[in-house]
Amino acid sequence: MVVVGGGLAGIAAALDCARDGASVTLLESRGRLGGAAYSFTRDGLIADNGQHVFLRCCTEYRDLLERIGAAELVTLQRRLAIAVLAPGRPPAWLSRSGLPAPLHLAASVARYRPLGARERAALVPALRALRAVDPDDPRADRRSFGAWLAEHRQGERSVAALWELIVRPTLNLPVAEASLAQVAQVFQQGLLGDRAAGDVGYATVPLGEIHDVAARRALERARVEVHLRRAAAAIVPDGGGFRVESGGAPSLIADAVILAVPHDRAARLLPPGSGCDRAALSDLGTSPIVNLHVVYDRRVLGLPFAACVQTPVQWLFDRTEASGLARGQYLTLPLSCARPELELSVDELRDRFLPALAALLPAARGARVEAFFVTRAHAATFRASPGARALRPGPRTAIPGLALAGAWTDTGWPATMEGAVRSGRAAACEVRSALARRVPERAMVAA
Ligand SMILES: Cc1cc2nc3c(=O)[nH]c(=O)nc-3n(C[C@H](O)[C@H](O)[C@H](O)COP(=O)(O)OP(=O)(O)OC[C@H]3O[C@@H](n4cnc5c(N)ncnc54)[C@H](O)[C@@H]3O)c2cc1C
Q: What secondary structure letter does DSSP report for 398?
């Protein structure tokens, strides 16, 4: 069997298929595994392409970390606690108590200073109503979350100081462009169900050590043959199996193929007769993420991470230790759905964001900036906008033995590491049952 794509979806699929006893070959076009979640070196600093956060409710991603021996390379909060910074103000906190959900958030919401008393009171019925939305209801998927918020008496300040803080980084879209069903899924999974579900986790080492190095070791142990720098150019159904062609290398013959590449590549690689709607895949669209990387000559942030309001800064992460920086502090500023920032030059971003950081962090005012660079992911995620769910295919195609994986497939989750792993496991499951169906069919033909 062949898995095409070595992101988290492909890694998870390959490990499951190998565990089921299949002989698996994984093709990855780049020189490393990990897909959209990777590291690179810049002037001696090991940086990630973008801050990758997960929550305690990301059970499949966390399980993958265990399986590849990387669970010790991440940290997970004992209890949700997010500092919310605003210029000239002491931090506010979004945190949980030990009470059962949804009461675990009650005290924090009641004290949340970026909102006034009336706004805080109006949050309670809105959160209750969001808890009642069925994330699998196609009508909810077609509705705009922005319009829904307006109907539920959420004004501009509540949107900016609370809803955007959670929706923008999880869906990579502003609330006005998000699908109600997708937002309901995020809140129900992460905040309104189990009290511990929203505890925040992230890597304490560069992402490449987890998604490339540790994953590659685990695949090796599972006897998966990994070919890096080898792109699949075509998948050709051939005599009940498949021929996977890649330019410059011999074709591979496989009884099954899992296609675990981004949706635009999948649209190009899917053979005729797959039953997948290429126009629908293109309608899923893309949304960018820009990451700013700032190295100061001293410590300017006394927190591991923080969310920010009333400033162009969205979130801040301290990556000093993870990057191996010996002196000073290395901060990253992920900017979700950063369409305007994508167009700005490094100098323009510097001119805009360094003063914003100085306004948020008093210690940054006298500090020297030793490095400032930018990473841009033009097509970081698909767009979970109204109607997106109907465009996301499941793992099964019309060609038995050919399955789809990727965070963009119909996992119910937004484009996340969790969604990617879930999709890979679902594709492995689909291939297993397609092959099991094929055996009796062949036996009948032989008889
Ligand atoms: C900057 C950024 C920040 C993010 N932040 C978060 C976050 O905080 N939390 C979170 O959960 N998620 C986050 N995400 C999303 C998350 O990274 C992705 O949803 C997930 O990694 C996607 O995994 P995947 O395996 O589905 O796809 P990909 O990671 O895109 O993997 C697909 C792989 O297929 C390979 N490929 C493509 N074409 C071919 C071919 N023809 N032959 C062989 N191989 C091919 C590609 O090189 C790639 O390695 C972020 C993404 C980005 C870009």
A: S
